[in-house]
Amino acid sequence: MADPVTEIDGRFSAPGARATSWAAARAALESAQLSWLSTVRADGRPHVTPLVSVWVDDAAYFCTGPTEQKAVNLAENPHVVLTTGRDTWDRGLDVMVEGEAVRVTDRELLTRLAAAWRARWDGSWRYEVGDDGFHHAGGGGLAHVYEIRTAKVLAFGKGVNAFTHTRHRPPAR
Fold this sequence. Notes:
This protein is of the alpha+beta class and 173 residues long. 18% of the residues lie in helices and 43% in strands. The protein is built from 3 helices and 11 strands. β10 and β11 form a beta hairpin. The radius of gyration is 17 Å and the shape is globular.
C-alpha cells in the first residue's frame, strides 16, 4: 500500500500523541513471525487462526489448504482481518490489516511469494509452485495462496503517554 492516507484517532490516543508512521506499521507487518487471521463462517460465527504470512509489494499474503476452515469460510465471505503485535498492554505495536482475500494464481507472483516464505523463515518454509497454488516440497498437499486487498491498516501503539490509534488507508484512486 504505497503512500497511504494516515490519520490519528484522538478519541483513543494519548493527549498529544503522534500517529504511528506507515513505515513503522509496515515494518511490524514485514517482521511478524506470527499473525492471526480472522474470517467469518457461513453461519456468521467468527473464526480466528494463527498463521505465518509475508508482506510483499505492499500487500499481505497467506496460504491455506483448500479444505481448511479458513478456505471454506473465504469461499462464502472474502472479508478478513490479519492481526499481529505483542501480547503486552503497555509496550509495542499491534497492527491489523482489514480487507478482502483474493486468491493468487499468477505463476510469476507465486514464485516470488514462495521465495519470500523461504527467505523469511531461514529456508524451512519450502513451497513448489504449481498452476493452482503452492505444493509442499516433497509431494505434500496443496495450499491456496491469498492476497489481502487492503481496505485499511490500523496501528495501535502502546506505552506510557504513547497510546495511539492510527488508521492508514489506501489513497483515493
